[in-house]
Design a protein that fits this description.
2 helices; alpha+beta; globular
């Protein structure tokens, strides 16, 4: 069965510098603060986060539990962050870019996966509009609100330690 790559893109503008936005999003242990669903991410080992660092995540989407292994694939402060999440539902690449824009930062999030064409069409026509899109729009809105509500200096611009 032929596979096809599916990509979903979301963006938000925040009124904080790129370094602040990058530092907050690159701290995967804080994703639960802005996730669009129930989520907990923990490092598999203590120490600085580097390309190849691994994490495990657990949570619920639409009331169904999930578990993923997460691997950092790119860290380019303060511009790019990428990680792969692998679970029973497949492998998903999450890429974040942070670009200076006017009075703040434009954050773009790209989520991509390869799915068999038939499964992908079901996801695109049913799961995406009813579950995936609203969940990710909610996450980006929460990310914006969380970053913009944080008192000045409350979010360190240092690379997070796991």
């Amino acid at each position: 069965m032929a596979a096809k790559t599916f990509v979903w893109t979301y963006q938000t503008h925040v009124t904080v510098p790129p370094a602040t936005a990058y530092a907050y999003v690159s701290d995967l242990s804080r994703h639960s603060e802005w996730s669009g669903t129930e989520l907990r991410i923990e490092a598999d080992a203590p120490g600085p986060v580097v390309v190849g660092s691994t994490f495990h995540s657990v949570g619920k989407t639409a009331g169904l539990p999930f578990h993923s292994e997460v691997v950092i694939t790119e860290l380019t402060p303060p511009d790019r962050l990428a990680f792969v999440a692998r679970g029973i539902d497949g492998e998903f690449l999450h890429e974040f870019t942070f670009r200076s824009d006017g009075d703040g930062t434009l954050i773009e999030r790209h989520i991509s996966t390869r799915l068999p064409r038939v499964v992908g069409m079901i996801v695109k026509s049913i799961n995406w509009p009813l579950l995936i899109r609203p969940m990710n729009l909610r996450a980006m809105d929460r990310l914006k609100k969380t970053l913009e509500r944080a008192p000045s200096g409350a979010i360190s611009t240092q690379t997070p330690d796991a």
